[in-house]
Amino acid sequence: MTYCVGVLVEEGLVMVADTRTNAGLDDISTYRKLHHFNVPGERVMMLASAGNLSITQSVLSLLQEGVPGEEDGEPPQKLVEAPTMFQAAQLIGRAIRRVRSIEKDGFEAANIRFSISLLFGGQIGNGEMRLYLIYSAGNFIECSTDAPFLQIGEHKYGKPILDRAVKYTTELYDALKVSLVSMDSTMRSNLGVGLPIDIALARRSALTLEVNHRIEAGEGYFHDLRERWSAALRAAHRAIPRPPYGPSSS
Question: Do residues 212 and 200 lie in contact, with contact meaning Cβ atoms separated by under 8 Å?
């Protein structure tokens, strides 16, 4: 289980991912799910993953070492060599399909579902900052100004706060704050999502990470955010009038 969220606002991009990997009740581990492919001053790219860990690691290795070309004689291409974000997303899809073609028979024999989904966002040179959700078939969709966030993994618990609080015009660090509240809501409702949490933030056209941080258990700001959000919800509940139903309403 996992939860990752990417928010693309006017000022830049925020990505947040947990680190919990659950292979059974007695096999819970911590693995990084938010990865960076950066060349400061040239490109900043972030990749968050959900799904089968072995598939994810194979795809990441291909992107780092080079994805074989589709045509004979075409050289392998690394993710940091892609000329545009769109072509980089296409390359990630190609890497997924490559891993599927190699591992398909073994997965089917073991009755294991081929499961991977990725959030990929960033900016290359003077191109637009973009955010994609890439599926296990290698196809993808792009984030829009009308819906400026994408999620993978256990997304249903954290989605309501994003729906209500995030707009394209939201300030960048407010987008980070809301993303952390979304993560907290997910952690409270699903034991398969948990600390540490990796966060990354890139300002539009800066072509470098402004924030690259891991939130560990017991960190003061995140503990305070959780307590304040819970208190705010309780206060909002108390401030809403009693429903006008039942015998006492007549």
Answer: yes
Structure tokens at 165: 């609080």
**Beta-carbon neighbour count of residue 207 at 10 Å?**
20
**Strand pairing partners for 121?**
46, 131
Bridge partners, residue 4, by sequence: 17, 152
CB 192 within 8 A of CB 2: yes
The C-alpha atoms of residue 179 and residue 14 are separated, in whole angstroms, by 8
Instruction: Return the structure tokens found at 117.
Output: 């989904």
Q: Is residue 63 a contact partner of residue 91, using CB atoms and an 8 Å limit?
A: yes
pTM here is: 0.95
Helix axes 85-109, 53-65, angle to 10 degrees: 140
- Cα 18 from Cα 30, distance rounded (Å): 9
The CA-CA-CA angle for residues 2, 224, 217, to 5°, reads 45
Sign for the CA dihedral angle at 190, 196, 200, 201 comes to: positive
Residues paired with residue 118 on neighbouring β-strands, in sequence order: 49, 134
Task: Dig out the tokens for 14 from the structure.
Answer: 């925020």
Write down the pLDDT at residue 70: 83
Q: What is the pLDDT of residue 29?
A: 80
pLDDT of residue 247: 84
Q: What pLDDT, in 10s, does the model give residues 169-213?
A: 999 999 999 999 999 999 999 988 999 999 999 999 999 999 999
